[in-house]
Amino acid sequence: MTTTESGHGHADTRIYLLIFLWLGAVPGVTLALSYPHLPKQAAITLALCVATIKATLVGAYFMHLRVERRVVFAIIGVSIFFIIALVVIPLLDTRGLAGQVSHVP
User: Fold this and answer.
1) What is the separation, in whole angstroms, between the first and last Cα of the chain?
2) How far apart, in whole angstroms, are the C-alpha atoms of residue 46 and residue 49?
3) At how many degrees (to 10) do helices 40-57 and 13-34 cross?
4) How many CB atoms neighbour CB 19 within 10 A?
5) Using 50, 70 and 90 to split pLDDT, how confident is the model at 96?
6) What integer pLDDT is reported at residue 79 of this predicted model?
7) Closest CA to 62 of 16, 5, 2
8) What is the pLDDT of residues 44-91, one digit of tens each?
């Protein structure tokens, strides 16, 4: 087995095994972080950090998103455009309606 990347952008077996071991160790880190009885906000923050690390490893290596940057950024850009449009358009429509809302009994 080689330790270099193949021509198709897929990492070799060693990288996959290393990521697999990290993904196996991360739940142990999560469990260890649950024992000190941290404040609720700190515990939630640490849990979200651990989940982000796991999701990043899975997405980058097992879903091969690490080598498809142009496509990923294009999809993210289009998604952000539509999110902004779906927030701004209704806000523009409701600007003049603030005093006109009536409650029906």
Assistant:
1) 75
2) 5
3) 170
4) 16
5) low
6) 94
7) 16
8) 899 899 999 999 888 888 888 888 888 888 988 999 999 999 998 888
pTM score, two decimals?
0.54
**Could you tell me if 23 and 58 are in contact, meaning their C-beta atoms sit under 8 angstroms apart?**
yes
The upper half-sphere exposure of residue 103, i.e. CA atoms within 13 Å in the direction of its Cβ, equals: 1
**What token pair was written down for 88?**
């701004």
For residue 104 the two structure tokens come to 């029906």
CB neighbour burial string for 82-99, b if at least 16 within 10 angstroms, e if fewer: eeeeeeeeeeeeeeeeee
